[in-house]
Design a protein that fits this description.
- The chain is 44% helix and 16% strand.
- It is of the alpha+beta class.
- The protein is elongated.
- The N and C termini lie far apart (112 Å).
Length: 542
């Protein structure tokens, strides 16, 4: 029954009965009907009030809650066999604004948005120096893309920095752009994870432009990080992708496939302890499990350098597509290079379909064999040969982390059984053995000469030396680089030790002499060339 009839018959009801009822209308509610429902909600707060109606073949429900402050509105699309799906949310006490939003989403009028956009000096305009929604002080624009802009702002209510993402005005009438933006809002709201960007608020401005208020992240994307530093260290790699697997696994459990995992969609934030916090961004093209990668116009969606073979072929996608894309990012994070890169998008897709990437160890011989095997399994062409879930990939990373980190970081190696990495190595005691006997024993073992120099110089502990050599034999790579990555020594000291080793061949020195030069360089804060001059002068004076 139209709401107008309910006004005519209102004398037959008490005011309490009228307020307790919800409204059902024949078509899209008018601003007057919206205003009446808001009045009901204000008098019955915090009890929500609703308006229900049908538009074409769809059923809708508009819900308002007036629990202090400005009323909050939610528009749901009602399905018979499924729970209602949220179309949008807005905080507003203006019935006309809510009416325009409903018109835009259920029965759009041509030119409506263009007429609204003529009010360019709206109180909700977003630009540096402006106050947005009477709450967010806009400071500066921090990103600009094809879909929208992101601004840094100060939330005056909560006294915190935020990032506000808004759709470009020229896309406000494009249904595809709206759907993509709304999909990102809904995905982020349904996923609450420490490694997924947190959304604080979202809705529409008076101009029917969607916006999203997110946590402000002060860091670098993986893309920016690699441009600055070349690649991730092995420990940072394990920590970052362990976090990302947890985030992606939650999305997959919610039946959401990201479809656009790439270095520019992952933020790295430095933590006080030196570790990196990873945050997954941009769910704008996320889709449900079982949907293809194409739009209605048969346009392939995704970023070609990181698309799975099945995504390249427009096949139905499942979570294993994201595993492949993450494998591409892992490859690039370790090597600084994309696994596949051709001159054109089509040529790059063909590489995804038909060619294996170059070995990671060709780019960096210090990368362990086990890590390369892990990445290449994620990059398998056939979904059935990859890790079958983000959880399975997470377990593989955690297993490697236990092998690589816990064992080598320990201050003492304890042989715990035949599977121990150090089982085949003897324990040396620097306190009970002089340097000459140590060198004799070391020379009988496959100990790299640089490690010997560091050990004789007493810069590293014997257990660290033995552990990294054991690990090198199992996984390959440079044992000295393992020491650096694990924090046993810094990079400058290791580089100095390498140069000292070079002097052994140049001047036919003993390991003790090279160790002595290394100790002298460190104590005098001197480079190897100057230290050699001092040594030579001393020898001549004797």
């Amino acid at each position: 029954m139209p709401l107008g009839n309910s006004f005519k018959n209102s004398r037959k009801k008490t005011s309490a009965e009228q307020l307790l009822g919800n409204v059902s209308v024949a078509s899209v509610p008018s601003s007057r009907e919206i205003s009446f429902t808001m009045l009901q909600a204000e008098q019955c707060a915090p009890e929500p009030k609703t308006i229900s109606w049908r538009s074409a073949d769809q059923s809708f429900q508009l819900q308002v809650v007036a629990k202090g402050g400005t009323p909050s509105w939610k528009l749901y699309e009602v399905h018979i066999d499924n729970p209602p799906s949220l179309k949008w949310t807005v905080v507003s006490e203006d019935p006309e604004q809510v009416y325009r939003l409903i018109q835009k989403r259920t029965n759009p009028e041509p030119g409506l948005v263009k007429q609204e956009q003529q009010h360019g000096d709206s109180a909700n305009a977003i630009s540096p120096g402006r106050l947005f929604l009477n709450r967010y002080q806009i400071e500066n624009r921090i990103a600009h893309g094809g879909m929208g802009q992101i601004f840094r702002a100060k939330d005056l209510t909560m006294n915190r920095d935020v990032a506000i993402k808004v759709l470009h005005l020229h896309l406000a009438e494009e249904a595809t752009a709206h759907r993509r933006f709304e999909r990102e809002m809904q995905a982020c709201l349904s996923l609450k994870h420490p490694n997924i960007v947190n959304v604080y608020d979202y809705g529409y401005t008076v101009e029917v432009t969607p916006y999203m208020v997110m946590e402000y992240l002060d860091g670098l994307t993986i893309e920016e990080y690699l441009l600055k530093k070349g690649h991730l260290t092995l420990l940072d790699f394990v920590q970052v992708f362990t976090q990302l697997c947890g985030a992606i696994n939650q999305a997959h459990e919610k039946l959401i496939i990201h479809r656009d995992l790439k270095p520019s969609n992952i933020m790295l934030i430095a933590q006080p302890d030196g570790s990196l916090l990873a945050k997954l961004l941009d769910f704008g093209i996320a889709k449900g499990v079982g949907q293809t990668a194409v739009t209605n116009s048969n346009e392939v969606i995704g970023t070609v350098f990181y698309m799975s073979p099945e995504q390249c072929q427009n096949e139905v996608l499942d979570p294993r597509s994201d595993i492949y894309s993450l494998g591409c990012v892992m490859y690039e994070a370790l090597s600084g290079l994309r696994p596949f890169h051709a001159g054109t998008p089509v040529a790059t897709m063909l590489l995804h379909l038909n060619q294996e990437p170059a070995s990671l160890r060709e780019h960096d011989s210090s990368i362990p064999h086990s890590v390369e095997k892990l990445v290449f399994k994620a990059l398998s062409k056939l979904p059935g040969e990859r890790y079958q879930s983000a959880s399975e990939l997470l377990q593989a990373l955690q297993l490697f982390h236990v092998e690589y980190s816990d064992l080598v970081r320990s201050t003492k190696l304890e042989v715990q059984g035949p599977m121990s990495m150090a089982a085949s190595f003897e324990t040396y005691s620097l306190e009970d053995t002089d340097e000459d006997s140590i060198l004799i024993e070391l020379c009988d073992k496959p100990m790299p000469i640089t490690i010997q120099v560091l050990l004789v110089s007493k810069i590293i502990e014997e257990d660290d030396a033995l552990a990294v050599v054991a690990f090198q034999q199992m996984h390959g790579g440079d044992a000295g680089q393992y020491l650096v990555e694990l924090g046993c020594i810094d990079l400058s000291t290791y580089s100095l030790a390498v140069k000292c080793v070079e002097t052994i061949k140049r001047f036919n020195l003993q390991i003790e002499q090279a160790a002595s030069i290394l100790q002298y360089c460190l104590s005098q804060n001197m480079n190897i060339e100057d230290a050699l001059k001092v040594e030579l002068v001393s020898s001549e004076s004797c």
